[in-house]
TrEMBL record:
Ranges of residues in domain HTH marR-type: 1-135
GO molecular function: DNA-binding transcription factor activity
Pfam families for this protein: MarR_2
Top-rank lineage group of the source organism: Bacteria
InterPro entries noted in UniProt: HTH_MarR-typ, WH-like_DNA-bd_sf, WH_DNA-bd_sf
Gene3D superfamilies the UniProt entry points to: Winged helix-like DNA-binding domain superfamily/Winged helix DNA-binding domain
Annotated protein name in UniProt: MarR family transcriptional regulator
Length: 140
């Protein structure tokens, strides 16, 4: 069993290295890119982002702040009567949307390079086995 887990660690390391290079090319971190994905998917308030990312509020606030500083995100204060906390809406700026779309294109290209030579059956088998592995980990 150690052989399979060791192979997974190697795959994860390689994946992280490639992602770091790709995100750096677009002046992003992996965490910033993932956060931009969530915002692009419609999770635009801090409450929604905390729920979907499972990040601590202070960590999320710092990441959002960095993206606003880089002018990749715009922030808009939402007015809600009787609300105890301030609520903000985060959206990708034009610069942020371009960086995000370029990163997504590079990610898709990497995915094609990795799995293009594989048959559909091989790709489906990998998905099935990874889902089984995920389920096994969840049982532990």
């Amino acid at each position: 069993m150690k052989e399979s887990l060791a192979a997974l660690i190697d795959v994860q390391r390689n994946y992280q290295q490639i992602l770091k290079k790709m995100t750096k090319k677009h002046s992003l971190t992996i965490a910033e890119w993932q956060l931009m994905q969530n915002i692009s998917d419609g999770n635009q308030t801090q409450t929604q982002l905390v729920a979907v990312t499972q990040l601590d509020v202070s960590t999320l606030s710092r990441q959002l702040g960095r993206l606003v500083e880089k002018k990749l995100l715009a922030v808009e204060k939402l007015e809600e009567k009787g609300a105890a906390r301030k609520k903000y809406l985060y959206q990708l700026t034009d610069v942020g949307r371009k960086a995000f779309e370029d990163m997504q294109a590079d990610f898709f290209s990497m995915s094609q390079d990795l799995f293009g030579p594989w048959t559909k059956e091989e790709q489906n088998l990998l998905k099935i086995l990874l889902n089984r592995l995920k389920t096994s980990f969840e049982r532990i």
